[in-house]
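Problem: given the chain below (57 residues), write out its structure.
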Amino acid sequence: MKKFVLAVLIMLIAPLSIASSERNMPDSSRYEACLIDGKVVMMQPNMCYAMGGRRGG
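Solution.
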């Protein structure tokens, strides 16, 4: 019975810890459309600006 309760607790707590870690990621960790030389490329926003691109495609 203890193993069952422990397994249920782990299954309930694990998704919460993953969700909280995603919330703390910096903005540069997500990918966005970037327009570079007429081409739309998916990259991190800071890299888009570094390569002379425009965000939003």
